[in-house]
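Sequence only, no structure available. Ideas?
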Amino acid sequence: MEDVDNTIKFIDNEDNQHIIKNLELRKFIQFKLNQDVITKNNLDTINEIILDSKNIIGQYNKVYFEEIKLFQNLEKIIIKNLGITNETIKKLGSIKQLEFKDCEIQNISELNKVENLTLIHSNKSR
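Reply:
I predicted one. Tokens follow.
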């Protein structure tokens, strides 16, 4: 059986194929669009994404913030279980809604264009 993780690809007119590296993001897009092959036009229909360093069973997942620029109409990002540096905050650009859950954030003063900012910290020791 073909490996599901390698079936979702971002297709671009310039180089034909870029893989969306973030595994959980790929699965989220596949679920949202209900398809395996993702085109640039498909990505333009996405207005919300979730970036989580942990998958559903608690294993760590590499997150690539550079992939945010692939989504031209992005309005909301939910970020979970990550350390957020100043460099990362700059990549968030002019997103209107940001939600950070269980994140360590160095400096939120750069998020002055955010209309709705949510910070959540859950007590995992309970």
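Residues 11 and 41 are 9 Å apart (CA to CA).
Hope that gets you unstuck.
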